[in-house]
Design goal:
With 155 residues, the protein is α+β, with helices and mostly antiparallel strands. Helix content is 65%, strand content 16%. It has two helices and four strands, in the order H-E-E-E-E-H. The strands form two sheets. A two-stranded antiparallel sheet has the order 1-2. A hairpin with a 5-residue loop joins strand 1 and strand 2. Helix 1 packs antiparallel against helix 2.
């Protein structure tokens, strides 16, 4: 009987290790990737707002501050703000007119939103796997099921 109980304890330990070292790590990685995509979306939306305010003001002259790195800013004077450079990915920038930039931003944010949806689905699958393994552990140990109101979300 003791060997059966020690076998169960070994299995429980293996499943707990699997949850901690594999599933939770994968969940954290997917959520970090999704957060990174959300940051890119926020940057593009900020650029969109800036372009719209430039179009509303109608002035070609622009004074701004440019970050050179390490929070070191210099003042800049732009004589013609009708064209801007937009980061399109992989370190490449494209010179676009303001309406072209708005079209690009719309398409890019739509694409990035699709990516975030995929990451969210992946995170949900990983959470479901964690829940399934926890239910298996509960059954393996012979514990009673928790009432619905005392359950909480995993991670």
């Amino acid at each position: 009987m003791t060997s059966g109980k020690s076998d169960i304890n070994e299995k429980v330990l293996q499943y707990e290790t699997f949850i901690d070292e594999v599933l939770k790590r994968d969940l954290q990685r997917v959520l970090e990737q999704r957060d990174g995509v959300y940051e890119k979306i926020a940057q593009y939306l900020h650029l969109k707002n800036t372009i719209e305010s430039l179009q509303e003001s109608g002035c070609k002259d622009l004074k701004t501050e440019v970050d050179l790195g390490c929070n070191f800013y210099v003042q800049a004077h732009v004589q013609d703000s009708s064209r801007i450079f937009v980061a399109v990915g992989y370190g490449f920038f494209v010179e676009l007119t303001l309406p072209e930039a708005l079209k690009f931003i719309e398409k890019k944010t739509s694409q990035l939103t699709t990516y975030t949806d995929a990451f969210t689905k992946d995170a949900a699958k990983i959470k479901a796997n964690i829940r399934m393994v926890l239910e298996g552990l509960r059954e393996l140990q012979g514990l009673a099921d928790l009432p619905e109101e005392t359950r909480r979300e995993v991670c």
